[in-house]
Amino acid sequence: MQGAGPLLSVKNLYVKYKSYWYTYHVLDDVSINVKLGEKVGLIGESGAGKTTLLKSILRVLPTQGKITGGEIFYKDVDLLRCSKQRLLEIRRKNVGMIFQDPLAALNPVFTVKDQMLEVLRYANERADMNKSDLINMALDLLRDTLIPDPERVLNSYPFQLSGGMRQRIVIAMALASARELLLADEPTTNIDVTIQAQILKLIGDLVEKKGLSMILVSHALGLVRKMTDRVYVMYGGNIAEEAPTSKLFNEPLHPYMQLLLKTAPKLVESPLTEGIKSIPIDYRNPPTGCVFHPRCPYGDQEVCRKVKPPPIEVEKGRFVRCHLYGSGS
Ligand SMILES: Nc1ncnc2c1ncn2[C@@H]1O[C@H](COP(=O)(O)OP(=O)(O)O)[C@@H](O)[C@H]1O
Ligand SMILES: [Mg+2]
Predict the structure, then answer these.
(1) Each residue's pLDDT tens digit, 167-191
(2) CA of residue 38 to ligand 1 center, whole Å
(3) CB-based contacts of 78: which residues, under 8 Å, 6+ apart?
(4) Does residue 314 belong to any structural domain of this protein?
(5) Which residues, judged by CB distance below 6 Å to any ligand atom, belong to the binding site of ligand 1?
(6) Dihedral pair phi/psi, residue 78, rounded to 5°
């Protein structure tokens, strides 16, 4: 294990999707890192590339998706070059992911028990573990996610359970493999609005209790503010801004982040399904210069139209890709 190095480090990542007719260059020089024990938020409107980034980390992009440049390290493991076996091991034992469409993660023809035991078996390949140990672990995980009557739930089929209950099971299963890092991709998208905040809080509490690191993707800006230490703001396949959470929300630097906060009704705990009306970027033909310039209140300068802004370190640990903060301005 490394000493002070980050747990996860993504450097200068480029990802494209290729269809028969088109190539979409989505991630464009994306760098992020997560330190041990850190909770990192990833925000930005739909189509910004958040899911693409998380799926790239675990190497679970759809077949049209290709990583064309950059590097991804999990501790000292080079995830883009390591063996398939090593990658599987990391997915099974170190890094768990709650996918954006979590209900699709449950197989309708197997009981919760079948599915949880399979995950737990891979996560705990130990000769001294028998089936009843695994069942006890599954029950503990269900209790962790505050599922009432876990014995009954364990023997149920997904369709016999409510959406909120299935969501908790998906979280429990992700936690089974997330010994160190949890990637939570809009973990409350498909569930009833009234319990979204409750589920996010549950995830936050469990991450805390188990001492995990986390990347949280969510539109619920008020909760991201509460639950994370640092935030990356994505726009059009780029990281627009990176900052400690409180600094970002108190004094957003990038015009996109300023807009995002202005349009978010109130930074209260209630989740916002959509903070800002999304105007999707055409990744076949993205804007030249700064990708945000066509929507930016300050974007009519020549430099904005022509030059992609490099990340500028405004203060220690605080980066913004915007010409407003460039040298000499
Ligand atoms: N399977 C795919 N094939 C082609 N393009 C895709 C595919 N998945 C995502 N994309 C493109 O990548 C862009 C970013 O998508 P995504 O990573 O899901 O964004 P986010 O999670 O921020 O909403 C989308 O706007 C879309 O154009
Ligand atoms: Mg997404």
Answers:
(1) 899 999 999 999 999 999 998 876 7
(2) 26
(3) 71, 72
(4) yes
(5) 17, 19, 24, 26, 46-52, 62, 64, 280, 283
(6) -85, 100
